[in-house]
Amino acid sequence: xxxTSTSSTASAAAKEPLEVDLERGVAPExxxxxTVHSLAWSGITVTIRDRKTKLPKTxxxxxxGIVEAGKILAVMGPxxxxxxxxxxxxxxxxxxxxxxxxxxxxxxxxxxxxxQPDSTGSAGAxxxxxxxxxxxxxxxxxxxxxxxxxxxxxxxxxxxxxxEKKRSAETQARRIEALIDAFGLRAQADTLVGTTGLLxxxxxxxxxxxxxxxxxxxxxxxxxVPRVLILDEPTSGLDSAAGWEVIQLxxxxxxxEKLIVIASIHQPSTSTFNLFDKLLLMSRxxxxxxxxxxxxxxxxxxxxxxxxxxxxPAEFLLEMVNTDFEEDQEAxxxxxxxxxxxxxxxxxxxxxxxxxxxxxxxxxxxxxxxxDAIEKRPGLLSVVLTLMHRSFVKSYRDVVVYxxxxxxxxxxxxxxxxVWLRLDATQESIIPFMNAIFYGSAFMSFMACAYSPAxxxxxxxxxxxxxxxxxxxxxxxxxxxxxGIPYLFLFxxxxxxxxxxxxxxxxxxxxxFTWVLWVFLDLLAAESLVVLMASVFPSLVPSLALVAFANGxxxxxxxxxxxxxxxxxxYKYGFHFWDYQKYVFENMMINEFAGRVYTCAGAGxxxxxxxxxxxxxxxxxxxxxxxxxxxxxxxxYKPGHMGKDVGIMMAIILGYRVAGWVVLKLKK
Length: 668
Description:
By secondary structure, the chain is an alpha/beta fold. It is built from 23 helices and 12 strands. One of its GO terms (molecular function) is ATP hydrolysis activity.
């Protein structure tokens, strides 16, 4: 009891300094942005090629703006006005279409931002984007674990020396606890984010608003970064109270840590709208207003569009610049052009141009934006270990990852073992033995498609974290491969221990463990194929369809359906020799038949010279026996090259993984 009390006191004392700072509205010095004082953009124009007409279509048209540190900007406008495209452009993200072209200037502290997303002084290096449909949270982790892994991957606690590392770790832990409190997630700190099929967990998970807050907190857990936090409709799908809560928290964080916060927002409540310091109102890619939120009513009153009393100003503004539901589109377009022209010639537009010019003049002689020394990135080994740790936690909580597959493989083993139950070493059992070998190896591979949903969840998180500069394709590929090895080996042992002995395959220890080896290599190759297909098409139905088709092809040309000696040249040389199931089936056949002898009897079960009716004629026919090699000869299989085949299998597995790595490398 005394020890517990002491521990609690120490824990409270460790948290106290940061909690006091939060109550006072003051952030610890290491988390305050002292680098980026302003983000400005001038003449941002984005065009894409229309898919139907093949003509250029303007998404953004000469959009300007500037936001200072500690301020929060609302980007408003009807659907399709270019809000999301603008946010991606400001965040240094790739444009939504490969045919898109962009012009204009991004300014950090009045200086043009570098073009390389991850380079010092670039917008991508100091911004974080939280997208509207943020699927990048692992449902099998708790709120606290999600933040802890985000902090470890960002390297916010990196330091040299044991004492410094300890202090950095303590600072990181306090930072996590402070964010949990600041974003109102204390009661959910140990609650799973939420996903389907969690073993032994009855938590319903976080609500939509809580997930939004957690997504934002993940971006803020990295000390000193982001300087610019960009959010695409953070209140979408939330009720007015939850929406207000999210924006209020963002405003507090912006002021406390001197961050620049930019959020697109769709029809907020009046109280939520009034939380924003600045407003950018857009329609059809053009600016209709940019300036203080409190001044928008006066501006529109000055051009003859006074805001009605007791009406939500955000709702009024959106209705005014939205022409989608107007019956007379020509008149609506003319009205919209007049409103845009009024802004372009207004005092507010001139003031904005002056502010941009002043920012450029002020930044012309300054130093480029530098990242803080605390922002050292962890090495590849550290990132891989962190990703493996996170995947391990997910693997034993979420049955979709490996639990379902273990049940499937166990069921398959029981089915094979009981259908092909205790086959005798007679010629009548030879074809059933071959069927069992083919069926077991092929369907073990086929069932690997059950890994697609779990991998796609990891893929979505990878894309987000890659865009945020946390790690790349190499760390993702290596960690994903390594974490799967022990589980796949376990599956191989379980499947083999049940099916092998029930079926009565070659009853020796050497033959059994050789069988386990080939089942294991089969699963490694099958999972590597799933990873490749799901990386190319990270959607459940297309990835499942492709994996199923590929497995159907491999099953058709692996040598069982059509012996290699009869397979036509197109499939033999085009697919057969790099079909991993071919090497699995061939070596399982050799494992069973190369060193085994089977009996064959004559009519009525008689044996002896002249009475045998052996289906395979070998040198033991006069003894009413069939040497197993005779069975292999019809396929052209010869023992003695298992080492080479293992090497080929490893090359195929490596090839799939490298191909998957290339796909992840090219993904943006």
